[in-house]
Amino acid sequence: MKYINLNDYFLQIKKPKQYSIEEVLFTGQAPDKGLFAPETFVHYDKTLIKYMKGERYADVAFRILYPYFDDIPEKDFEAIVHKVYGKIKAPVRELYQNIYILELFHNWTFAFKDFAAQLLAGVIEYFLKKTNKRIVVFVGTSGDTGPAINEAFWKKKNIKVYCLFPKKGVTPIQRKQMTTLGENIFNIEVDGDFHACQEMAKAALNDDYMKYFNPTSANSINWGRFIPQEVFSFWFYSKIAEYPEPVIFSIPTGNAGHIGANFLAQKDIGGLPVARFIAPHNLNNYMVRMLKNMKKQVAVTRTYNCLSNAMNVKQPNNIPRILYIFDNDMDKMQKLIYPVTISDKRTADIMRQVYKDQNYLLDVHSAVSMAGVFDFLERHPKYRDYKIGAFLTAEPAKFPEKIKSIMGFEPPIPEKLKKQLAAPEKNVFSLKANDLKGLQEIVYNTRKSS
Ligand SMILES: Cc1ncc(COP(=O)(O)O)c(C=O)c1O
């Protein structure tokens, strides 16, 4: 598979420059800051979809992802995928009649981001072993990506991670998940919001000085962080439906990498019969406004500080990729996507309702996903007979303060998180927003450590 720069696509350049997967992973974005995307998408054979029914997660992931990584010998890629996903947990259950949940939060850092972060780290490590090159990885986080990336790259040879997080925007547990690892992991608390962190991480990629350190990105602007998430739809489908039965999926949306990758699974592109995607947002609802106004770009507002803090993204990075996936055709998008804004009050109400109905504790992000399902069914009762799958993205224990204030009790905290909460912080720096010079100094001063 060859990759192109989406800026070339939007400029309608006839023969856009092609990139290999290695170039894509090791640069994160094109020199002019364009996003990479594959030249073509993969349509999976229906027998392959049927065959997935009894398979393990690693097998499904290998089949779905290999076409995007086919510069790597098949056996090598299979080995990477099995090493990363061999013991992964992604359980599915029916919570209400015809409403299913996929729990994506049982692994390394108790967040769905682990799936893509670990695979990206596995593939990067594979390429690095062949070259002996040293790289630095920049990541801007709103709270859940940082822990997942730091953990995935922790102790990996010839890699240093610089993780920028909003000083006031992450929970104490998320902070400790990032800051207690040490070794090759460096954390920078930024006096600003997620966008300030993301902008600094992106600016670092294009900075002439940083180029000396071979920078790449571990945000979902990096295709290697984006595409592994596509597997979720196939896995979920294989657990709840019989091909070609249509289903509906609800995917909580912030930076739109998660839902964007899953759009690729849909029948016109990937072959999976997903009738609709529910895209629930918190008040940071760019895609809702986009589809309401049928405009490819809408005004960027301020960041609203909502309960689902990891989704507090005022301008999602992945919109150009989504437009590309839909052939730059907003009518196609509107037919498939049901975008909805979920208030904090509604989020909290759904948490209480689901707990009362099913004795099931949702985290604040997963609650947005479930709220999307209920809202969709109220608006479109004709879909009541469909199987609907809600993607649940984080473990409630990561947000104990919020759970306590909404539910009146604290969630049980897994042992690993308890240990991290009690551990001392390592390699933590502070910077003001936009202080690229300060970031350069940190990278320079830590170049010899670990
Ligand atoms: C727990 C959780 N749920 C949902 C999302 C939304 O995913 P995306 O930003 O890819 O839209 C995030 C993103 O950080 C998250 O951390």
Indicate the topology:
Elements: E1 3-5, H1 6-10, H2 21-27, E2 36-38, H3 46-51, H4 57-65, H5 74-85, E3 92-96, E4 99-103, H6 113-131, E5 135-140, H7 145-153, E6 159-166, H8 172-179, E7 185-191, H9 194-206, H10 208-211, E8 215-217, H11 223-226, H12 231-240, E9 247-250, H13 257-263, E10 274-281, H14 286-293, H15 319-325, H16 330-336, E11 337-341, H17 344-358, H18 364-379, E12 387-392, H19 400-407, H20 415-422, E13 428-432, H21 436-445
Parallel strand pairs: 4-12, 5-6, 5-8, 6-7, 7-13, 9-10, 9-12, 10-11
Antiparallel strand pairs: 1-2, 3-4
Helix pairs in contact: 4-5, 5-6, 6-7, 7-8, 8-20, 17-18
The structure holds pyridoxal-5'-phosphate.
CATH class of the largest domain, please? Alpha Beta
Q: What does the average pLDDT come to?
A: 96
How many domains, in number, for the residues? 2
**Regions with pLDDT < 50 over 5+ consecutive residues?**
none
Oligomer: single chain
What would your notes on this structure say?
43% of the residues lie in helices and 15% in strands. The protein is of the alpha/beta class and 450 residues long. The protein has two domains: 90-112 and 226-405, 3-Layer(aba) Sandwich (Rossmann fold); 114-224 and 422-445, 3-Layer(aba) Sandwich (Rossmann fold). Helix 13 (257-263) links the parallel strand 9 and strand 10. The protein starts with a strand and ends in a 5-residue tail after the last helix. The mean pLDDT is 96. Pyridoxal-5'-phosphate binds at residues 111, 142, 144-145, 220, 252-259, 310-311, 365, 393-394. Pyridoxal-5'-phosphate binds next to helix 13.
